[in-house]
Amino acid sequence: MEFSVSTPRYHYHYPKPTTTFSLKPPNSQPSSNQLRRPKTITTSPSPPPRPTKPIPKIPSNPFKNLSKPTHVPTPPITTSLTNKLWLTSKLSPPPPPPPDIDDSDEEEVVEEVKYNEPKKKKKPGRPRVEFRQEGKIFVGNLPNWIKKNELSDFFRQFGPITSVILIKGHDSTERNAGFGFVIYGGPNAAKSAMKAVEFDGVEFHGRVLSVRLDDGGRLKDRAEERARWIEEGDGDGGVDFRARSKWHKERQSSRNALRKVMETAPENWQAVVNTFDRIDKPSRGEYGLMVKYYARQGDMHRARETFESMRARGIEPTSHVYASLIHAYAVGRDMEEALSCVRKMKDEGIEMSLVTYSIIVGGFAKVGNAKAADDWFKEAKERHTTLNAIIYGNIVYAHCQTCNMDRAEALVREMEEAGIDAPIDIYHTMMDGYTMVGDEDKCLIVFERLKECGFTPSIISYGCLINLYVKVGKVSKALEVSKMMETTGIKHNMKTYSMLINGFLKLKDWANAFAVIEDLMKDGLKPDVVLYNNIITAFCGMGNMNRAVRTVKEMQKERHRPTSRTFMPLIHGFARAGDMRRALEIFDMMRMSGCIPTVHTFNALVLGLVEKRQMDKAVEILDEMTLAGICPNQHTYTTIMNGYASLGDTGKAFEYFSKLRNDGLEIDVFTYEALLKACCKAGKMQSALAVTKEMSAQKIPRNTFVYNILVDGWARRGDVWEAADLMQQMKREGVQPDIHSYTSFINACCKAGDMQRAAKTIDEMKTFGVKPNIKTYTTLIHGWARASLPEKALRCFKDMKLAGLKPDKAVYHCLMTSLLSRATVAEAYIYSGLLSICKEMIESGLTVDMGTAVHWSRCLSKIERSGGELTEALHKTFPPDWNSCDTLYASSDVDSDYEVDVNSDGDDEDDREFASRIDNVTMTDEDSLRHG
Fold this sequence. Notes:
Layout: E1 35-36, H1 63-67, H2 81-84, H3 86-91, H4 103-113, E2 119-120, E3 136-140, H5 148-155, E4 161-168, E5 176-184, H6 189-197, E6 203-204, E7 207-208, E8 210-213, H7 217-231, H8 246-264, H9 269-277, H10 284-297, H11 300-312, H12 319-331, H13 335-347, H14 354-366, H15 370-383, H16 389-401, H17 405-417, H18 424-437, H19 440-452, H20 459-471, H21 475-487, H22 494-506, H23 510-522, H24 529-542, H25 545-557, H26 564-576, H27 580-592, H28 599-611, H29 615-627, H30 634-646, H31 650-662, H32 669-681, H33 685-697, H34 704-716, H35 720-732, H36 739-752, H37 755-767, H38 774-786, H39 790-802, H40 809-822, H41 828-844, H42 850-863, H43 869-875, H44 887-890, H45 912-915, H46 928-931
Antiparallel strand pairs: 1-2, 3-5, 3-8, 4-5, 6-7
Helix pairs in contact: 8-9, 10-11, 10-12, 11-12, 12-13, 12-14, 14-15, 14-16, 15-16, 16-17, 16-18, 17-18, 18-19, 18-20, 19-20, 20-21, 20-22, 21-22, 22-23, 22-24, 23-24, 24-25, 24-26, 25-26, 26-27, 26-28, 27-28, 28-29, 28-30, 29-30, 30-31, 30-32, 31-32, 32-33, 32-34, 34-35, 34-36, 35-36, 36-37, 36-38, ...
């Protein structure tokens, strides 16, 4: 049979090895007394011609030629094709070494090849096949209880040890048979073995050791056994099991059944376990398969149990079994136990393979510990001269998860310079990393490079692009990628649909979100936990809380287990609506369904109570968190501080600030904003300035929100000069004032009576493209009314309507109160203006509260003492029970100098800006200083 290997990729010409059938020893001529004569030939001086024997048929079993070659094996050639094709040798391992050739068979072969030629006697002491392994020694008369690590520690003094083999006893697998082998490694392995032989006769744990060089007898016996087994094969080269016992047949059948179940039904773990239990006396291979199976399932506890069961049977684990166990812990994200397995491997003298290093690097990458992953990657480079694409992919993934894209790019470049082609998985990893940092250009470059290198974009490739555009807020481009994917014949899966739904949920586009859900249902995909969570979030965002609760029940009917992400929107939705009773019911429902509350769940409850000004109950939640073993984070303390800031309680705000700092939590700009709100609300501007100085010391820059709080604080005190200095400082530091900055500054001008500067600020806003909103006009109207210029206030009211803004209840309340409080004479232009405003309020269906009605009624008595058209129209905006007898005197008066607080309408929403940081729950409204 002739084999040929063609390698068109390389252009080297290798010398063709020649095979000779001559048995002559090289460089020597045998003497006459060394000739071995055939048994069938007599010792006559002239032997008669021997009759020709028929040439035997070539056996149909090709393995027979491998077990008994018809020629002397030539010494290995260093430049052979097998040594060059290292990949081929890895994929197709060479056959086992043939056994020693028997003398009688050898004579027959020679007689068949060279007829009537006298045979040369084989040189004594020169075996045809070398079974002796260099650097291997035999150690006998060992104690039966000795372990590998103890034997390795004793013989390690002569050189590095590759492995230690202890032969197990036949009667007890937990004890050895009293002998074993030690194999030295490295370039000086032979010298190390020779030095170890000098310890022959040395006492070791009460026994006199027998140490000698290995003669290869054990490998020779194995080769002969294999040769006999092949000889008993059938005519087609297969194995004939007729020579094996019934126990061997059942064992082999059970092994095949286990492999078949693992390949065909890996999700049916009960079938896999039952098949494994039916194997009588499982070997290391079956145990290794089970450990590997549990590792893929992420069941590290059962993997460990199987591993220990194997050791209890006296079967020592190999590096492959250890790698599977480490993989189980890496999948379960328990890297401490994984490292303990590594330490145990080293203690037992088992070398770590490149696969083990890849698993450890990948495990640290999943837990986000890039530094540890980098350290193990460097150790792998030191221990192994060549690396593969798998370990490079794991270390690149580790740095992409920590957004260290520069290091990831350097690793990819290093891999390419080493001649390792990057698989498509590394392209996807780089695209995902650029998505996390929001680098759209580089992500698209990687996608184009992927196609240039001959890869066909898969659904993962398009999914990375969809995820990129969803995260940067370009959902329209994500839809374009979706259509492009469909044109190439790739259908959406659950993940790509979920990405599109998340994009629309972030934009609060509920209609398109449900349209994508309908497309998902039409494609025949069944909703999973992630999709149900998105549907619940959509219903909560729409305010349909009852439908969201029903979706949770439907989810449970479909046997999907809700997660904490499922209940977060519900808890926060009821808390924002002020229904804390329902929020607490959902919290109890979450506990009963088996979900353990997290710090984000408690933060949602705290935020709801803070928004309802129930600070005592919010503090009680902190105590409940402590009892549950959950430590509050910086968001929890910041929310509490923000609640006390809305009440102007600086003492409590600073108290929780101290707790946050003492707990070693990170202090960010949101924490300082809560302190500044408390100081400004209480009018303690000097304390606010001290807080800003500490921010500068901590190198936390002031943003627009911080300046808005400070400007509003000075505006409350009517200090227009300090407010003006802050506006100038914002521009010098490159912080662009927004609508809230200008509104607060206009409020400061109005309180100081500087209406000309307020009017100039309006013009400046329009110059910079900032449009005034309703609060801006409300503040300006109140300023003109306080300046006793009602005609200016009415003109500002008309300008607001011309700008397309619809007056709300606060505008009408401010304008009417300001004009009525300062109107002592019924001027015609004021009278007509007040009358038109009343008609607008009646058409809008607005009704004032009782206190405002009492104040307006007293002001009307100064204008129309005996009643009139204005009084009659204004009474239609009063409460229905206005005509009751005690109304006029039971209600308290309203301060004639009505104050407009630009922050008053947002006091109930002070903490909502922090809710966006609590479990990614999208808020519809934010802090008034930020979103008006």
